[in-house]
């Protein structure tokens, strides 16, 4: 009788465990988008730090809104980058990472641009406030570039589902065949 090693040795490949915890490129994130996401994290962090250094505010509402958006963008983009570059995304239980990444990036881009413009228009005019607003706009541009690269490489995530549904509905009636027929 053949041993287990003899039977399976020619048909199986031993599983190799990668010691590298960061895997880029992968199915969700290529090298260009990974670099853009790093730039987003850095720019939003600098915008947040510059905003935090502001000691007096003429209109605190715009400052607080900018603080919220820049801090949220920094933390959640760093988390998204960590999840997409490691194998942790498989443990979270989300199956639609591309769609989540697209919509998150689009929403943060819009919010950051709005908060930056609002803060630039309504601040005390100090150099720190102007610099924070400038880094907010730069961060918004980085998020917009990320969206553009995403669309160029993968297309719109919600259009793929529509195309598949339309293609399936135009193919005619589905074939039905009984698998286990008893005669």
Automatic annotation (TrEMBL):
The keyword Plastid does not apply. One of its GO terms (cellular component) is membrane. The chain crosses the membrane at residues 62-84, 96-119, 131-151. Keywords: Membrane, Transmembrane, Transmembrane helix. Residues 28-155 form the MARVEL domain. It is found in: Membrane. Its main location: membrane. It is a multi-pass membrane protein. This is CKLF-like MARVEL transmembrane domain-containing protein 6. It comes from Osmerus mordax (Rainbow smelt). The gene is CKLF6.
